[in-house]
Amino acid sequence: MASSKRPHDPLSAFQSVAAPGVRGGVTTAPGLNSDRARVSLRDHEKYVSLTMEFRCNLKCVHCMIEDTMDRLQPAPEEAFAKVLEEQREHKRWEGMVLTGAEITLRRDLPDLARRAREAGFSRVRIQTHGVHLSRHNYADELLDAGVNEFFISVTGSDSESHDRITQVPGAWDKMLAGMEYLDQCDDVRLLTNTVVTKLSYKMLPELVERLSHLKRLVQMEFWNYWPMAETDTHDYCASHEEIQPYLCAAILRARAYGRFVEVKNFPECLLGDLGDALVNAQPLLIIDPGFWKEFDRNGFYQCVHRESCTSTECLGLNTAYIEKFGNEAEKLYPLP
């Protein structure tokens, strides 16, 4: 029997699985968004995410965990079982996210999905580079196991750019073939994630156009790159001024195709009338605690206007960005 606890309460959900490596990711409280036009899924409090793999067979140049992948450990079976038991007893969430580095490298992924559905999750999402989804028998196996959401990383706008950034020839063709196969399936939702770097920001509008034929692509996310360090040693950060016109064009184009959009790690004030696209929320995340030691080196929330700004979503600037471009005090402004 379901518990009488209030559903989708981020605090009680955090307490229910509290353990090292667990963090809540909801930024603006769900109630504060009730009067906003629905321009993104904004369903983060309804999901719990588990990092279940730390291997990857792509070599994305912008990978933020490349230096820690060899020592971070997947969430243990005990944590997975605890989440399943919490779901059986309290029906606390609607969806589970299985993520990695690359989650499809786990041979037991279909079994994990099946167990999640049996525990009462109506949505099971995998976060993946999508390469293995081109094997229709494997995609069918995931579908049969209950996976019905696919959050797919798209790094470029065509095979040349995508394969150059992932450093694996053929990655684009396989990823797109998998998406097009899933696009024919009932109850499937596709989401995309694009990391915005110096290599990719000019391609954002073209990327949206290239995926315009996908009927089940419900949301596109654009994550402005940040290094897991105090400096941008790889020189992948682009300035907000450079990114802004291309990002805004991509938002408008995606919305014109009926997509929801979420932007991560970009100043809300610089998005102007498109500021409602900024959603830095994430589902409750269970991950190796060592990840957060690296993540916290970013030093977010460094904005000279933070004390007077009313934004509840903006992360301000991070240490590496300021080291490279300055604090941009004259370009940023507080939201009233």
Keyword list:
nine-stranded mixed sheet, 10 helices, 336 residues, single chain, TIM Barrel
Mean pLDDT score, rounded? 93
| The CATH H-level homologous superfamily | Aldolase class I
Give the class from helix and strand content and strand pairing. alpha/beta
Count the E strands: 9
Could you explain the architecture of this structure?
The chain is α/β, with parallel strands linked by helices and 336 residues long. The protein has a single domain (10-299), classed as Alpha-Beta Barrel (TIM Barrel), CATH 3.20.20. It has ten helices and nine strands. The radius of gyration is 19 Å and the shape is globular. The N and C termini lie far apart (46 Å).
Question: What is the element layout, followed by pairings?
Answer:
Blueprint: H1 10-16, E1 22-25, E2 47-51, H2 77-90, E3 95-99, H3 109-118, E4 123-128, H4 136-145, E5 149-153, H5 159-166, H6 171-182, E6 189-196, H7 204-210, E7 217-224, H8 240-256, E8 260-264, E9 282-286, H9 289-295, H10 319-325
